[in-house]
Design a protein that fits this description.
Length: about 240
Amino acid sequence: MTTLRIMPREMRLMSERILSLMALPKGFFLAMQDFVMLSQKVGLGGFAALEERFDLLADAKPEAITITAENGSALVLDAGNQHGWVVVPSLLDLLGELTAKHGEARITVRNAVEPAEVKIAEALGGRTGLSVTVEEGGVVTAKPQPLTGRVAEDDPVLWDLLCNGTPIEADLWWRVYHHAKKALAADTVVSRRHAGPMIVNEDGSVTGRKDNDDDTDVSFLAAPASQQTQEKGANP
């Protein structure tokens, strides 16, 4: 089996594109951008789970998540049969609120699909100033963890990813890659002319930014076919 080492930029790009294909509330998928990557890194479902659970995630309804009991720093969160990844944004918000009020937090998560995925909250807590622990039975606890401003200490899983990436089985990765391409516009001459911060019109004129500070050469989009191309077309 061939394994690839994938870095965060590529994983985030694929996750964002695939999550954008889902009927999630506007902007919600951006809160989940790192979830698949973190899940892969800590040995949970990762990109295989994204592939297998796409239909469930595509129909996610974060509004189904409700608080069913609350007592001081403890509460019960009914996940409403949502995937663990969908629960984590609300879970982290509630942990932060309870910790700010009471100095600690304890939330019991019930009725989540793939509840093991809630464990990624441990990796995410540090960047929000929390030390999060996910226990058996869906019990999640948190206490304050002062931020140092150093990614290696505040967000060690992300730091490891930035330095080393994570292994992903090659066939799985290329399936994910092709799935993610569904979020892109079809590759045509017109789409190429409209890519980026400017539009290259058919006559070669440019609408929009003209400083070309990214060294983009737009001439080939409007230039006539080369003599060599014409000859090939005439003599196949």
